[in-house]
Specification:
13% strand, alpha+beta
Length: 292
Amino acid sequence: MTQPTLIGRVSGRKPGLLVTALSLAAAGIPPMPLRAGKAPFGNCPDCTGNACGGRPNMKVPGPCRCPGVCHAWAAATTDPAVLTSPAWMAAWRRAVCVAYHPGAAGLTVVDLDDAAAVGWARETLPTTRSVPTTRGEHWIYRGAMSSHNAVRPGVDIKSTMSYARYLGPGAGTLTALPATVRALDVKELPAVRPSPRSVSVPAWSGSGQCPHRTPVFLERGIAMAVQRITAARSAIHATVYATFLAVLSTHGRCGCLTDTHVARLFTAAQAKGETARHCADAWTNARTTLGL
């Protein structure tokens, strides 16, 4: 991460927050503002009560098109036009600090909450870039994985579908995400995964025949999903996940998805910079969310 130039003000308040965010965005790290309590901003009126189709707990993005910062890590973006839009400027005026979505930048933050956790990391993990926090340290690795809290006492993993506070550039050199960190997540997928597999899920009908009754409906849905991924300019990982979720919510139970359909989705995602592993994680997480 490059160090942002801490200058400027947002409407006369909060020196440097917007400039810090824009500097992070320029380095390919999607930022977002945090309000008092170091928490993400809550849903706007249009998104309250899941009216937009998103998730009230802000852990899983839905098809919401809200221009604000309603969906926590899923709202993080590298688009300066969004970061300086009226809705976001209102948030920056109330913000107390800047956070970022590590996974979208291809990073993983091992959040060490206390001295004991820091001591464990120094004895166990490969050295990498570290950033002091209020009570401990953030150890930042190059590479993304799924996020999990409390993988051991005082240790959280913040990567995909999560956010971490930006506390400065830190010291040391970024090193590759080691197997030691991946092993902290017992649910992590194997390091090597073949090409997309067929989707085997319970059918709605005994015959397994697609209830849409025409392949044209499925083809149009896949084409629209590919187009949505291809057109994404920011928050790529969130867009890929939301698209996978939408496809599976419509077609995941009728048995009509094939290897070819899944491969088209994965290919579109990988063309936007997602790795095969990220695609597999997003697909699995979407299926888990829908109970497939």
